[in-house]
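Quick question about two entries, pasted in order.
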Amino acid sequence: MNSPDIQLSRKLTNQLLHLAQLSPDIEVCGLVSSQNGVPCHCYPVANVADQPAQRFLLDAAGQIAALKAMRERGEELFAIYHSHPTAPAIPSSTDLELAAYPDALYLIISLNTKGVLEMRGFHIIEQVAQEIPLTLSED
């Protein structure tokens, strides 16, 4: 994932944004897989955080099941996504602290905008976030 930008298909992008809209009062979360470096599937995972409106914690069993399904399909972990119901699409201090997958992209969807949803991508390594530009593809 050293490319200057990440291409996400319109279908996958719409799916992620739709999931965030379905639960506007909590942070939705999950995994995105890729095949041959191309993001392809979304795996929603339950948020089991003690304060799901302010943070996310992937359900361990759900995360394991999603990773197993990826392996069975010949996919790899590409990204971890979550939404921010009332905050911008930038990593919070908690997001930076708990980021445990330096090779994964972190996608953050903000519902804190008027009429337009925002999604931004970051690599987070040792609590430092670097934004990775996202582009929409028609695939």
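Here is the second entry:
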Amino acid sequence: MDNIALSLAMLLAIALIGGAVWQWRRSGPDRNVWLMLVLAAVVLANVAIWVIPDRNGVAPVDRAAAGPG
């Protein structure tokens, strides 16, 4: 389940960046473009938090998948 959520988050970030580029070319840099880019950065930061391993070499997503204990 965690892998599906992370995959959807990555797809969302790609779509947001693509939408921001499309909007920029269509009407220039306005508030919606910057908001989409900020949201994409937040989503990418959240994905990075979940997949980057700690000092022991275990990523939080792997620890969560292993269950409690």
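Reply: Residues 11-52 form one domain. The two ends are 19 Å apart (CA to CA). Hope that helps.
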